[in-house]
Amino acid sequence: MSLDVAYPVQTGESGKSSWSPGNQAAYNRIKDTINSMNFQIIGEYHSHINGTPELSKDDKEFIKEEADSFRKNGVEIRNWLEMILKIESKKYTRKHAQSCDCSYLKKRIRFNIRGINSPLVGYSITIGTYQYNLETQNFEEANVYVP
């Protein structure tokens, strides 16, 4: 599978272990737009700041509810893909030139980005992806590749 477009939806309010639409009307408009344009929904993505790129119990419940909501509104979804970005800020004692490197970690991938905003700051972004089978209601970690 290749992903052509990902639309950010920043209408949420999140806490350490929760997420909810901050503006329910805006969130519903986004879902209605997706439905009316006949986009194929394959899932969603979200971040865990300084956490793990793994699904929490709350993540799994949200995914089940969201997939069911789309299906009840006539959107055909067989499998749901959830991408989690673990984002960590890195502070350096010596200056770094702008750089980016990529490494594979079993089924995940990590990007290290240095010197973008400041030569003393960088970011580590680890991507984990999970497939949710709506028929069996099972979650399974999927492999992540970058072309």
Summarize this structure briefly:
This protein is an alpha+beta fold. Helices cover 20% and strands 39% of the residues. The termini are close together.
Main β sheet profile? 6 strands, mixed
What is the molecular shape? Answer: globular
Report low-confidence residues grouped into runs of 5 or more: none
Integer-rounded radius of gyration: 17 Å
Order of helices and strands: EEHEHEEEEE
Distance N to C terminus? 12 Å
Q: Give the percentage of residues in beta strands.
A: 35-45%
Q: What kind of oligomer do you see? A: single chain
Q: By helix and strand content, what is the structural category? A: alpha+beta
Description:
The chain is an alpha+beta fold. The protein has two domains: 9-39, no CATH class; 44-142, no CATH class. Helix content is 20%, strand content 39%. The chain has two helices and eight strands. The protein has helices spanning 24-36, 57-72; strands at residues 12-14, 19-21, 43-49, 79-91, 99-105, 108-114, 121-133, 138-142. Strands 3, 4, 5, 6, 7 and 8 form a six-stranded mixed β-sheet that branches. Strand 1 and strand 2 (19-21) form a beta hairpin. The protein starts with 11 loop residues before the first strand and ends in a 5-residue tail after the last strand.
Question: Which helices and strands occur, and which strands form pairs?
Answer:
Layout: E1 12-14, E2 19-21, H1 24-36, E3 43-49, H2 57-72, E4 79-91, E5 99-105, E6 108-114, E7 121-133, E8 138-142
Parallel strand pairs: 3-4
Antiparallel strand pairs: 1-2, 4-7, 5-6, 6-7, 7-8
